[in-house]
Amino acid sequence: MAMTLRCDRAPAWAQLQAAFETAGRQFDVRHAFVDDAGRFERFSQEAPHVFADLSKNLIDARTQELLFTLARECGLEAHRDAMFAGEHINTTEDRAVLHTLLRAPADAPTGPKTANELREVHATLDAMLAYAEKVRSDHTITDVVNIGIGGSDLGPQMAVLALAEFAAPGKRFHFVSNVDGHELASVLRDLAPEHTLFLVASKTFTTAETMANALSARRWYEQSGGTDIAGHFAALTTNVEAARQFGIDTTFGFWDWVGGRYSLWSAIGLPIALAIGADGFRRLLAGAHAMDGHFRSAPLEQNLPVRLGLLDVWYRNFHGFTSRGIAPYHSALKRLPAYLQQLEMESNGKQVDAEGAALSIGTSPVLWGEPGTNGQHAYFQMLHQGTDVIPLEFVAVRDAAHDLDGHHPKLLANALAQAQALMVGKLDAGGHKNFPGNRPSTFFVFDKLTPESLGAFLALYEHRVFTSGALWGINSFDQWGVELGKVLAKDIEPRLASGDIMGLDASTAGLLKRLGTRA
Ligand code: F6P
Fold first, then answer.
1. Catalytic residue at 346?
2. Spans of all domains in the chain
3. Please, what are the averages of pLDDT over each run of 10 residues along the chain (519 residues)?
4. Which of 108, 121, 376, 507 is deepest in the core (most CB within 10 A)?
5. Is-catalytic flag, 113?
6. C-alpha 29 to ligand 1 mean position (Å)
């Protein structure tokens, strides 16, 4: 199987370090535009359903060349091909990584490790979409409650909101993820059991929060007079047996080669299909598949996810930026930052390489964000005048999905103006009113927010995260870092009632005493 060479061990690494010292550290993007009339064209990229302007970033042509060389030296293309071929690139769990297969058409070419899988994918997809259509035409079901967390929540929740314009009226969608009972209780308050469909979404069907919420939902359903569990509960899981033991017979499966944060394309996407229908869901898959084709076949120099992933390496490891913001200028993309946060930080928040050796370079930045223009009246102050440089990503949509006069030009003008202000700055006002400028940003444009453009954008991000993870030589597809807290919570829970603080550190013991339920 193709393994990557860690980027800090590749020959081009030292050349990049030298380039950073001679030109990178002092790079001023304003001068770069003066020197190069073709910079916008050179540093922008058309990809399926998404256009990206990278020209306001702190990068020159020579650095970009070196980054492409670095990617080739690291074996990025072979690693990418290994993923698509179904090699077990998730080495710590000994699993293939085949979420891209979930959006491949039924007649897509396959290899020996993906042919059966593709058949199973389409059998499940057809069954799930048929079920979605049945529920859509059942007008007694007015409320759909998705119970799941992490990848079993963020993707469907984000996409149902993003594609609300395409949703048929008549159904409300609720997402319950937190073990905090306030969340489930406030959803249940307004529901009637005969009008409600619960989807228990959990890859493993063991996640503590989801099991607690599913049990409480079932108890509520039965106590409210519901008797038809089969008609009002469905499970979306790789662990169909556990779902059956729980008492749910309507199940839609998926496979261990789908990571939780990459699972919205699988049965986990059922809420999306319920909202936008089978055709809409297939359009979402088609958009992602188009981006997969781009990632697989475009030369690195015109490959948008690769260009973004390499820029991420440049910023993290040479400029030392530890954070990146994302500001969607479309209110329907409100949950996009949260979704991307899991995608990137759970994938690339690693401190050892694929062999388990400690890394001496930084990996995932902190990813965060809020929609514009709201962010302009909150965190943008720091982006413009704070002491840290934080690359920002704008997402703008050319055509609005409403006809309220004047709003959309105002929105787009704000996005353009903010990106412009970050770059050009203002140095003649003195002191508190000066803006340093030269603050980097990337600007993404969709013609319209559709299932295709959303699908393409999410796949773009997946492949970008793949690219930086591959160069860092890490396994982007495990998540051992979430385990320790789960184990400790199991130990602490009974102590809250018993007051037993034996063996705890003084801080945890002190807090337990404050929070414990004992008299
Ligand atoms: O806590 C991390 C995690 O394992 C995520 O990777 C996953 O998306 C989430 O929990 C939910 O897991 P499951 O779908 O198995 O309930």
1. yes
2. 99-276, 483-515
3. 83 98 97 98 98 98 98 98 97 97 97 96 98 97 98 98 96 98 97 98 97 98 95 96 95 97 98 98 98 98 98 98 98 98 98 96 98 96 98 98 97 98 93 96 98 98 98 97 96 96 97 83
4. 121
5. no
6. 41
